[in-house]
Design brief:
Blueprint: E1 9-16, E2 19-26, H1 30-45, E3 49-53, E4 61-63, E5 72-76
Parallel strand pairs: 1-5
Antiparallel strand pairs: 1-2, 3-4, 3-5
Length: 82
């Protein structure tokens, strides 16, 4: 019996006032990647910070650009202290 090819997917958790939303994409689907990249770029333009890792179990690092090969991303809105 042969093992089916693993379909790699990415996930973006978007923190907001409602808690958080999650967006997933198939790393082999260019339309899903383009939609995720558009959302990433829109959030970055709004002042969000992005953190991610290639593997979920790895520590996250700061993202400046969208990388569709990231298994996990977290988008955090700008916070204002007071």
């Amino acid at each position: 019996m042969t093992k089916a090819a693993e379909s790699l997917s990415g996930a973006m958790s978007i923190m907001d006032t409602s808690g958080h939303k999650e967006l997933k994409w198939d790393m082999n689907n260019s339309e899903e990647i383009a939609a995720a990249q558009e959302i990433f770029e829109r959030l970055m333009a709004q002042g969000y910070s992005g953190f991610g890792s290639k593997k979920k179990e790895e520590p996250k690092h700061v993202l400046k650009t969208f990388d569709p090969t990231m298994e996990e991303m977290v988008m955090v809105p700008r916070t204002v202290g007071g």
